[in-house]
TrEMBL record:
Disordered as annotated region, ranges: 503-527
Pfam families: F-box-like
Organism: Armillaria tabescens (Ringless honey mushroom)
Domain F-box, first and last residues per copy: 23-75
Name of protein: F-box domain-containing protein
PROSITE patterns reported in the protein's UniProt record: FBOX
């Protein structure tokens, strides 16, 4: 047992302490900082007719914003972007004055576009189907300048309307495409939310063309996005018929509905074209055959059925693997733990776990009778223990909502995780407190255990005194301990709840306007 005087304790309750800053003249600030200030202060104008409030600051700032097109290359579009006094029939300048000014003053530089739309496309919404049609036409006209494209939405219909103009369109400078559906898998896997069912049937063919994969279509697909490096799709409708980027570095397919996942032939073609460049791969139940990815060092796997991972192995070979993330996509399922055993059996058999440096497990629950591990030497190890025994080079482990079996495997013997230096544990509920406390005590009392360099705990609402008591203990097994928690404002109610839960396991615009916005950078009015 070690004394807590040897540990560096850092407790954070989420409050931010003000820091003193030196005043620097605005004309001496780095361009990157000016750009950040510009983006923050130019959004959501009080009067849409005079959108540039920054022009009222000082003449130095006025010169800066009119002289540097780079300041205008990061464009944010949201529900408040349309001018409430504008009319679709009057064109894009009437509906989106701020957006059109950005396009005008960014000259011909590549632009980064971020679209965050919440809600369904209804006539009473701030951003309607007609607005989405105008935006889609703008994006089509800008396709040769779009460098990064980010969508955050909770309506597949909005996503389809906005991206319709980009279908079959070449985007030569596009390096990143990110699309995230924020409603989560409960909707896309048809487990409720009946009001959303119609919206979830909306099809999208963005980034694709054609209906087959003959050689000539693949060649056309390569030409569409020759410089696309990063693709992030989260719960997003997608058609893969002619998606053939040749130089992907990161491919993230996260929580996609089964009908929108690439089939074996499509995924094999995508991976084959990026065999020499792909470094990070995230799959959600995609199945393919005979793929050896020599440069992939990070693999992220999400699944809800064991068969989904079983279809990946042994065909998937990642000899350079250093980082692994395994994600439970169906966290409310009562039978998911039955899928963990065969899934992790495949991982332990076909992945080079002995060379892993980083591992993250999200909501992984192992199935064992009474949640008890067998005594050493009593027979064949369960899959969970066999998995942890292979992690001989692991230095960093992150656990979100770990179960009792996971803690038990980590404390099974000093030979488990011999190289571990950093441990991060996050919990979704206060009833995990006792599990972590028990793990803490057993780990610290284990003979010949190795002291961790860093232990980080992220807890939900926790009474302030109890949180500090948690880390200021005599049993210490880490040189640095960081506790981040949300202070509980109703201590007595929280303690009562904790006592009760302690036993649970828990349309169209004028082309002339777009051409005008790109042909000249223009000058702002002096007023």
């Amino acid at each position: 047992m070690s004394s807590n005087t040897n540990a560096d304790i850092d407790i954070s309750s989420g409050s931010l302490q003000p820091k003193s800053q030196n005043v620097v003249p605005i004309n001496q600030l780095p361009l990157e900082l000016l750009q950040s200030i510009f983006e923050l202060a130019s959004l959501s104008p009080v009067d849409p007719a005079t959108p540039w409030r920054l022009l009222l600051v000082c003449k130095f700032w006025r010169v800066i914003v009119t002289s540097f097109p780079l300041l205008w290359t990061n464009i944010a579009i949201g529900n408040g972007s349309p001018n409430p006094d504008g009319f679709v029939d009057m064109g894009a300048r009437s509906i989106f004055p701020v957006l059109m000014s950005y396009l005008r003053f960014s000259s011909l530089l590549p632009v980064n576009i971020s679209v965050s739309i919440r809600g369904m496309p209804r006539h009473h919404s701030p951003l309607t189907r007609a607005h989405a049609g105008v935006l889609s036409h703008i994006l089509r006209r800008l396709s040769h300048r779009i460098r990064t494209m980010t969508f955050t939405f909770d309506s597949w219909e909005f996503y389809g309307l906005l991206t319709e103009g980009l279908t079959h369109v070449q985007m030569p400078v596009l390096i990143q495409w990110t699309a995230e559906y924020v409603n989560g898998p409960l909707v896309i896997f048809n487990e409720g939310f009946c009001a959303k069912n119609l919206d979830c049937r909306f099809e999208s063919t963005v980034l694709t063309a054609g209906t087959g994969r003959p050689h000539e279509l693949v060649s056309r697909g390569i030409a569409l996005y020759p410089n696309l490096w990063y693709l992030h799709l989260t719960s997003t409708p997608m058609s893969w018929d002619m998606f053939c980027p040749p130089n992907l570095i990161e491919l993230h397919i996260h929580d996609l509905p089964p009908r929108y996942r690439p089939d074996a032939i499509q995924l094999a073609q995508i991976l084959e074209l990026s065999r020499d460049t792909l470094q990070i791969l995230e799959l959600s139940g995609s199945i393919f055959q005979d793929s050896a990815l020599e440069n992939v060092h990070t693999l992220k796997l999400g699944f809800s059925l064991a068969e989904e991972l079983g279809g990946l192995f042994p065909e998937l070979k990642v000899p350079a693997l250093r980082s692994l993330e395994v994600n439970n996509l169906d966290r409310k399922s009562t039978w998911f733990d039955l899928a963990v055993t065969p899934a992790f059996q495949a991982l332990a058999m076909f992945l080079p776990l002995h060379q892993l440096k980083h591992l993250r497990l999200d909501c992984i629950t192992f199935h064992l009778p009474s949640n008890h591990l067998p005594n050493p030497g009593s027979g064949q190890d369960p899959v969970s223990l066999a998995f942890f025994k292979q992690l001989t080079s692991l230095t960093s482990l992150s656990l979100y909502s770990p179960d009792v079996v996971t803690f038990g495997c980590m404390n099974y013997s000093p030979d488990i995780l011999p190289a571990l230096q950093t441990l991060k544990i996050s919990t979704p509920g206060v009833n995990y407190y006792e599990y972590i406390l028990s793990f803490w005590q057993e780990r610290a009392r284990m003979p010949a255990f190795r002291m961790l360099e860093h232990l980080e705990l992220t807890l939900p609402m926790c009474a302030e005194g109890r949180a500090e008591e948690f880390v200021l203990r005599k049993e210490v097994f880490a040189k640095r301990v960081v506790l981040d928690y949300q202070p509980d404002m109703h201590r007595s109610a929280w303690m009562l709840q904790d006592a009760e839960m302690g036993g649970d396991d828990v349309d169209e615009m004028d082309n002339a306007e777009i051409d005008e916005s790109e042909d000249g950078s223009g000058e702002m009015d002096e007023d």
